[in-house]
Design goal:
The structure holds 2 protein chains of 2 kinds. Helices cover 24% and strands 36% of the residues of chain A. Chain A has a 6-stranded mixed sheet with strand order 6-7-8-3-9-10, sandwiched between helices. Chain A has a 5-stranded antiparallel sheet with strand order 13-12-11-14-20. The longest helix of chain A is centred in the middle third of the chain and has 18 residues. Chain A is α+β, with helices and mostly antiparallel strands. Chain A has 8 helices and 20 strands. Chain B has one domain: MetI-like fold, CATH 1.10.3720.10. Chain B is globular and about 70 Å long. Chain B starts with a helix and ends with a helix. Chain B is an all-alpha fold. In chain B, 76% of the residues lie in helices and 0% in strands. The longest helix of chain B is centred in the N-terminal third of the chain and has 34 residues. Chain B is built from 15 helices and no strands. The chains are: A alpha+beta, B mainly alpha. At the A-B interface, strand 6 and helix 2 of A face helix 9 and helix 10 of B.
């Protein structure tokens, strides 16, 4: 049974719909990430769960409790704000104790629980400091401790790492995830950072234009993107525009005949290929699709090589190949053999 | 090299101008304080000697003492009412789109920029008319005086609270609500402490303005009810001995203490 259920949630401001018919079930203890470009409605969705934005339609339930009409202070959702939103006039301990105080937790119990929360985020001994005396990373931990101390039913994280520097972000990712797993907290995190989303989530929700484009695990989103948007947003894809000519046959705009397992029906469509699934040189032998391609540009990225090629006047694509020992990157203007399997490509019929 | 170590002409001129400005501000204060310790009755230079007797005279002057008490009462009452009116007004002006909001904001400054005589006359006429219309004793009453003084307190409170609300991060209010605080608790525990500098500074300046107000009060005080500035003015009509200077020194001292104490909790220089 879902611990948090969001059903047909919608938010409109006048004619503008920012969240459109969003339905998500989150299991007990699951770490769910809402991912999407800015303006996709992910933050609005989170704020509706927290109670700061009244939905125009739909329902939100935490466990058996319908919280749709409840004010924020009755929802018991621990929210970590992007700006941390620590109370500047209170010490670390007072910040963390605030939620307990509001819940009328007896004074004698507050001390140990504050200490425990601070221990969890490794800030023992910082009790009497003020937020302004802490680094960004420490403030972030206080915000987390404050949300954890009140033992929330759901933990909500609003871009919690975006104000940290890159190195710290990597560490905190792992820490937050370990903590969440240890405490078994049902969690929703909002982020626009794909790598962050992929490393932390149990499942991801890709949103765009206020709508849920796809819900799934990392593997599901990468291997079977539901639409062209997800194929381009999660990881990279090479897109080839053309038409489905018949079952298993795709013809590109530039006239390439491509064998493609997924092609059914007929009509305009886009073929999406993952750059690392395209083989080069002798590796391409024996594959269903083989073409000779002209190298436009090659970039040396260390572990990987990015090679932009053109197959015809209208068909360009990106290949990504591992930097194996002894491999010399091709020069622009060179012609190389490339190829991919018949089931490597995904077809997205063009919606009219 | 040598040019860098030697202060430039411009720097000297700037410091000189600042010094003259400071002297211009401080000189009257220094003179009043000096005068308060003169021994002779008619102030003249050089002083014949020094004495503390005028402080005793000021403390024993019934008009001064009752004026001081009244000014204190009016000032405190007007400041409290001014805060109760001014803080919600500032919150509303900053946070909500109010019809004619900017106009209201400017209008609220009016009591500060309007000449005291004009304000006093207007209030005098208004209070008389109110008395005629309602039959209630308004003019010359303590309530009438407090109401008028509230008018000069409110602009200070609104201005300074508004200033401290700008740049206030409202997500901390959301954080409080998220942690279980209702609207009132959120205001009391999170919003109010954050605007405290503006609140304290606004209250302090409002109080000082009320306490020192002469022109407006002249129109509104009743028989036997005199504020300290009026008592001082009346005393000066008959005598010019340093009693007045001593009374002023006491006032300066009290305000200085108030500002120093306030500054310990709230950095006034940051707000004003």
């Amino acid at each position: 049974m879902a611990r948090l259920a969001i059903e047909h949630l919608r938010k409109s401001y006048g004619d503008v719909t920012v969240v459109d018919d969003v339905t998500i079930d989150i299991a007990e203890g699951e770490f769910l990430v809402l991912l999407g470009p800015s303006g996709c409605g992910k933050t609005t969705t989170l704020r509706m769960v927290a109670g700061f934005v009244p939905p125009s339609a739909g329902k939100i339930a935490i466990g058996p409790r319908d919280v749709t009409g409840l004010p924020p202070w009755k929802r018991n959702c621990g929210l970590v704000f992007q700006s941390y939103a620590l109370f500047p006039h209170m010490t670390v301990a007072e910040n963390v104790a605030f939620g307990l105080e509001m819940r009328k937790t007896p004074k004698a119990d507050r001390g140990p629980r504050v200490a425990e929360a601070l221990r969890l985020v490794q800030l023992t001994g910082f009790d009497t400091r003020y937020p302004r005396q802490l680094s960004g990373g420490q403030q972030q931990r206080v915000a987390l401790a404050r949300a954890l101390a009140m033992e929330p039913d759901v933990l909500l994280l609003d871009e919690p790492l975006s104000n940290l520097d890159a190195k710290l972000r990597q560490e905190v990712r792992v820490e937050i995830r370990e903590l969440q797993r240890k405490l078994g907290l049902t969690t929703i995190m909002v982020t626009h950072d794909q790598e962050e989303a992929l490393t932390m989530a149990d499942r991801l929700v890709v949103m765009e234009g206020g709508k849920v484009r796809q819900i799934g695990t990392q593997r599901e989103l990468y291997e079977k993107p539901a639409d062209r948007f997800v194929a381009g947003f999660i990881g990279r894809s090479a897109f080839v525009d053309g038409r489905i000519e018949g079952d298993g046959r795709f013809r590109s705009k530039g006239g390439l005949e491509i064998a493609c397992a997924a092609a059914t029906g007929a009509g305009p469509a886009t073929l999406a290929l993952r750059p690392e699934r395209i083989a080069v040189g002798s590796d391409a032998e024996g594959l269903a699709n083989r073409f000779s391609a002209r190298v436009e540009h090659a970039a040396y990225l260390g572990a990987l090589l990015d090679i932009h090629v053109s197959l015809s006047e209208h068909d360009r694509m990106l290949l990504q190949i591992p930097n194996r020992q002894g491999f010399v990157e091709p020069r622009p203007g060179e012609t190389i053999a490339i190829g991919w399997a018949g089931d490597a490509g995904l077809i997205y019929p063009l919606q009219s | 090299m040598t040019a860098a170590s030697r202060p430039s002409l411009g720097r000297i001129a700037l410091n000189g101008a600042a010094g003259i400005g400071l002297l211009y501000i401080l000189l009257p204060l220094i003179f009043v304080i000096w005068l308060a310790f003169f021994r002779q009755e008619i102030p003249s230079f050089p002083p014949e000697g020094y004495s503390l007797k005028w402080f005793g005279a000021a403390a024993n002057n019934k008009a001064f003492v009752s004026g001081f008490v009244l000014s204190l009462q009016v000032g405190v009452a007007a400041t409290l009412i001014g805060l109760l009116l001014g803080v919600p007004a500032a919150l509303a002006l900053v946070r909500h789109r109010i019809v004619l909001g900017p106009a209201v904001n400017t209008l609220l400054l009016l009591p500060l920029v309007m000449p005291g005589i004009v304000l006093g006359t207007a209030l005098y006429v208004f209070q008389i008319e109110t008395e005629i219309a309602t039959g209630l004793p308004v003019l010359g009453s303590l309530g009438g005086l407090v109401a008028a003084h509230t008018l000069v307190v409110v602009p200070w409170v609104v201005r300074l609270v508004t200033a401290s609300l700008v740049g206030f991060d409202r997500t901390i209010e959301e954080a409080a609500q998220n942690l279980g605080a209702g609207p009132f608790t959120t205001f009391w525990r999170v919003t109010l402490p954050s605007i405290r500098p503006g609140l304290v500074a606004g209250g302090l300046f409002g109080f000082v303005t009320s306490f020192g107000n002469l022109e407006m009060s002249l129109f509104l005080v009743g028989p036997g009810r005199t504020t300290l500035p009026i008592a001082i003015l009346q005393y000066l009509e008959w005598k010019i001995d340093p009693t007045v200077a001593a009374a002023s020194v006491i006032q300066i001292g009290l305000i200085a203490v108030a500002m120093i104490v306030t500054d310990r909790y709230v950095k006034l220089s940051r707000v004003v």
